[in-house]
Predict the 3D structure of the following.
Amino acid sequence: MSRPDPDRATVALDTLLPRLGQRLARTETRRVSGRVRRIRGLLIHASIESVSIGELCYLRDPVSGRRVAAEVVGFEEEDAILSPIGELHGLSTRSEVIATGRAQGVAVGEALLGRVISPLGEWLDAAATPPGDTAHSAPRCASIPCMPSRPRHCAAS
């Protein structure tokens, strides 16, 4: 029986650990959820704790199976007020509200060239998600970079 090569095991760990770290960083560590209490016009009042203004949530109805994204836009007494990103058809007071713990972002990067995406950055065209992580998420609301630090773009003649 041969003994394992410690150098080979070290190399394997050196390649595995960064990948595990990246996966861990993308893992949702908590699932905060609540319920829709009432829907008034285009606003949804929900009983859900530990959400903040600008946070992205998903509304999932157990009967229709419909899932709609919504953003926390305010609070009234104990309720969070959400603005849906999409149609409300199929939602009810039985709908579950699932907090994501992050603000809505937008995908940016080379992988998006020629692609069709939704307002939430989901791929809408038939092509598969491109290989590699060339697209990353950027906050939808961010401060404008200082003029000298912006990349210079020249128009082609």
In short: The two ends are 69 Å apart (CA to CA).
